Amino acid sequence: MTNNTPTKIHFYGLDHLRVLAITLVLIFHYTYFFTHPDWWPAIAKFGWTGVDLFFVLSGFLISSHLFQEIKNRSSFSYKHFFIKRAFRILPVYFVVVAIYFLFPILRERPTLPELWRFLTFTHNIGLDASVHNAFSHAWSLCVEEHFYILLPLILLLLIHKRLLKHAYILIIGLFIAGFFLRYYLWHNQYLPNFNPDAIVPSWTKPIYFPTYNRLDGLLVGVSIAATYVYLPAFWNKITNFGNLLLVIGLGILTLCYFLCSGLADYSTSIWGFPLIAIGYGFLVTGAVSSGSILFRWKSKASTFIALLSYSIYLIHKIATHVSQTLFSNFGVDPKSGLMAIICFATCVIFAWVLYTIIEIPFMKMRNRLIYKKDN
Fold first, then answer.
1. How far is CA 279 from CA 141, 246, 272, 276, 333, in A?
2. Which InterPro entries does the protein's record reference (predicted)?
């Protein structure tokens, strides 16, 4: 969930996709964690895939930076990369973690996992969301953090062994392995422990949260980045059909909407994750294609929300909980559309505060540190 782009070009199309991703997440969590209108849109049940779109975006953006540096210099600085990621991700994340632990009244749910899980980004391993359900959405940040750590190490190893040009074999192998792993976990961990009366499906612990089951989106993003950097001729050919790529992506996602009608279904677990990743992969590729409508559409509103998307993701449950609690006392019906508008507006306001007082200063500090190191 980053705001950087792989080149000096500003990809406005990716801003629109970030807005789509965070909107899907907000709608989904508003539906399943809070009181919502009876007419709430049917798309809400598909909102969980917003995280998958974030994964594809991260895979593309982060890999593009690394691949471009490797292409220009035959290597890259892991230390330099980690400094950039740390200053971008950690400060506002730790602030939100502190809010959750220091002010229990602000939590959307009463219980939290142990603090060390948040500090070590192991929150998504063995998480029982039926017991520890506050700030449960931090699981996806763990997945991304594991990606930030492992991808550069794998690339350094491939460079050292002179196997980088064969990296596509690893990508394909991991993608295929995901099918078999989820199939095994479905039959050997989920079904034996299935509890039909559980408020939170027991499916989330062995299938949904673990990093090793959620690599599809990241792998698709990495694949797009590799094509973008290392196969420019092929990239130019396919991106001539930017709008067609968007249509194909929407078609695949429409199919997934019906295929994955149940979040904890077998089809979702085995086929849904990779198909959704591929569908969003087409959208990302279309969004960075110069001939597509998303690429040409410049929107200050989209760019603004995209800048805030990381902070919105972190703080949105607290903001929604505070809004519903406060405005209910002023007579606003929690099931009204007005309450939904208030809650979403509060999410943006809270995120803007975090972005202004936390993200911007640390990004400036990061840039000064990197500039000093580069000179």
1. 22, 9, 10, 5, 37
2. Acyl_transf_3_dom, Acyltransferase_3
